[in-house]
């Protein structure tokens, strides 16, 4: 596809909206009218693209009739769905890995059905109780992918299986960078996708997931140089980061895209130099995340190429 800065697909994430409602019901069971009430926020924030984000709604688990109703609703509201993101459904989860692998195949089929071009998968698992209690969940340790070559190989094999399925139906697959997973550093992420070895499988260069950590991390610029050749569907968010070398104290908090430690103007240029031609997803934790995401969308449109990119 050919895009300019004004037409590049930049989707709203739905991480601000929980799957479980105050009355105990699931968003899966809401009426179309109730979905519309939520999506009206997205439209009023100026978005024309939406990633349903399965922490809010698992569209791959809707019946065909309900999926048709959801997509008819998005069209009626002027929204398109360029990609689907999954969250905390790792294919190597010790308990649910098999189920999540099957779910991944359903997500790919659903992406094809609705005309989405990409799916994002990750190897990160549900938040621990300590993470749920923390103000910012990334300040507490979460689950870690095991340092076990056999599990690494299992992860590669299962992602390759999903990647081949996606390749057969014309979908790109982006693997989300996330701490303490096999995509928890730039070097490991590159090694992982290289082991998978499929042209449609790349990296979701969500560097924000790493620069927010209260621990030493590689400089964002060095990470981006390594992953830029593999960049596909991209979750973008930013953080302020302050380090005190004398004490080792690190403090981070969410920031608008143009204000945080990652220079997205430079990062995007690195990716474009390697032919990046995928959609973006705007995320933000804290406060009115949707409004900050809308401002981030406008920033991206200011810095993306004004001439056609294919």
Q: What's the β-strand tally?
A: 9
User: How would you describe the shape?
Assistant: globular
**CATH architecture descriptor:** Alpha-Beta Barrel
> What's the rounded overall pLDDT mean?
97
What is the number of helical segments per DSSP (H or I, 4+ residues)? Answer: 10
What low-confidence regions span 5 or more consecutive residues with pLDDT below 50?
Answer: none
Give the proportion of residues in helices.
25-40%
Strand content: 5-15%
Order of helices and strands: EHHEHEHHEHEHHEEEHEH
CA-to-CA gap between the ends? Answer: 5 Å
Question: Largest sheet, described in full?
Answer: 4 strands, parallel
What is the CATH level 1 assignment? Answer: Alpha Beta
Strands in their spatial order, largest beta sheet: 2-3-4-5
Provide the CATH superfamily. Divalent-metal-dependent TIM barrel enzymes
Q: Rg, please? A: 18 Å
Domain tally: 1
Q: What is the CATH topology classification name?
A: TIM Barrel
**SS content category:** alpha/beta
Give an account of the 3D structure.
The protein is of the alpha/beta class. The chain has a single domain (10-303), classed as Divalent-metal-dependent TIM barrel enzymes (TIM Barrel), CATH 3.20.20. 38% of the residues lie in helices and 13% in strands. The chain has helices spanning 32-44, 64-76, 97-114, 129-133, 149-168, 186-196, 208-211, 220-227, 264-273, 289-303, and strands at 10-12, 83-85, 118-121, 172-176, 201-204, 234-236, 238-244, 249-255, 280-282. The chain has a 4-stranded parallel sheet, covered by helices on one side. Helix 6 (186-196) packs parallel to helix 8. The radius of gyration is 18 Å and the shape is globular. The N and C termini lie close together (5 Å).
């Amino acid at each position: 596809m050919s895009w300019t800065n004004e037409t590049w697909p930049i989707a709203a994430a739905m991480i601000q909206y929980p799957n479980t409602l105050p009355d105990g019901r699931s968003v899966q069971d809401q009426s179309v009218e109730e979905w519309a009430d939520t999506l009206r926020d997205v439209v009023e924030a100026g978005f024309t693209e939406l990633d349903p984000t399965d922490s809010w709604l698992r569209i791959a688990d809707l019946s065909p009739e309900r999926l048709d109703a959801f997509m008819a609703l998005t069209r009626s509201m002027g929204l398109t769905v360029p990609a689907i993101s999954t969250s905390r459904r790792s294919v190597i989860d010790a308990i649910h890995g098999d189920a999540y692998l099957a779910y991944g195949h359903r997500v790919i089929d659903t992406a094809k059905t609705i005309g989405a071009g990409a799916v994002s998968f990750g190897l990160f698992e549900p938040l621990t109780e300590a993470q749920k209690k923390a103000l910012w969940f990334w300040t507490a340790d979460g689950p870690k992918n095991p340092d076990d070559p056999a599990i690494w190989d299992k992860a590669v094999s299962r992602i390759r299986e999903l990647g081949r399925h996606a390749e057969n139906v014309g979908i790109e697959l982006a693997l989300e960078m996330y701490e303490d997973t096999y995509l928890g550093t730039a070097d490991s992420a590159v090694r992982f996708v290289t082991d998978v070895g499929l042209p449609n499988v790349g990296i979701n260069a969500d560097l924000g997931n790493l620069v927010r950590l209260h621990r030493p991390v590689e400089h964002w610029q060095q990470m981006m140089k390594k992953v830029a050749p593999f960049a596909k569907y991209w979750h973008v968010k930013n953080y302020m980061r302050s380090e005190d070398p004398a004490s080792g104290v690190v403090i981070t908090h969410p920031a608008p895209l143009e204000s945080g430690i990652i220079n997205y103007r430079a990062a995007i240029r690195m990716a474009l130099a390697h032919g990046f031609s995928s959609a973006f997803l705007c995320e933000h934790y804290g406060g009115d995340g949707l409004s900050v995401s809308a401002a981030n969308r406008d920033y991206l449109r200011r810095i993306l190429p004004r001439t056609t990119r294919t």
